[in-house]
Amino acid sequence: MRFCISLRDGDGVKKVADFIKDSLLQKGLVYDEINPDLVVSVGGDGTFLRAIQKYFSIRPLFANINFGNLGYLCEYTNKELTEFVLDLLSPHHEEKEIALLEAKYDGKTCYALNEFRVESSKGDTLIFDVFINDTYLETLKADGCLISTSIGSSAMARSLGGAIVDNEIEMIQFVEKAPIQNRTYESIRSPFVLQKDKVIKIENIKNNEFFIYYDSKSDFVKNYHDDIVIRLSDKKVRVLKNTRNNYIKKTHEAFIYDRS
């Protein structure tokens, strides 16, 4: 098996990465950053998202180890390195598949694990129509909008008032960002959780420029007034599963300060 390691900066992180690299090389694995069968990310959620953007197209197995502050997406902590190596090398290890979001616009197709965000580039409001499965929903005047997966529901979507969704549910969530409400513009002003087969279209964009953010990347879009089409893709990422994880416990530890 060929593997590589994606890591964030920091002496402590490098020590963890070196331990993993040495352990896997001793077991006969081969280090290969060009065409790996396994990608190990060591850092936080951002490190994991960057690794996915770089390698997902060749469908490796991803393994993520938290050495950051939150690490909500990470299956292992830096205190579980021995367990990680044992799990990985076990012929009975468990994997999970996570569907990516897909967005088509301006002649390109992009993918994200967490979310896509359409946001103003000048600090003004954006104006556009929102359709779901070709049915008109609203004309939104706002700082922008966000479309997330269940995995991404605990990230920026939560900060914008979206729901935290069990990460085993395949769905997409549409969330407005600071919508304007007056006699001319009205919107649902609530997160909209949709079945996984729904397609969200942003049409009739009035602004000449804006940003599209997707996970760790961004795209400056100028003079584009056609559709932005976002759906749950049939492309998925494979992730090594830590069977000792408890999703509810992890959610509590991530977002609730325990004063006891």
Report the mean per-residue pLDDT as an integer. Answer: 93
Strand fraction:
35-45%
Number of strands: 17
CATH architecture of the largest domain: Sandwich
The largest pleated sheet is described as: 11 strands, mixed
The structural domain count equals 2
Helix-strand string: EHEEHEEHEEEEEEHEEEEEEH
Within CATH, the superfamily of the largest domain carries the name Probable inorganic polyphosphate/atp-NAD kinase, domain 2
The number of distinct helices, counting runs of at least 4 residues, comes to 5
Q: Note the overall shape.
A: elongated
Write down the Rg.
20 Å
Query: Ranges with pLDDT <50 over ≥5 residues?
Result: none
The CATH topology annotation of the largest domain reads as Tumour Suppressor Smad4
Helix content: 10-25%
Q: What's the level 1 CATH class of the largest domain?
A: Mainly Beta
**Quaternary status:** single chain
Structural class: alpha/beta
What gap, in angstroms, lies between the N and C termini?
A: 46 Å
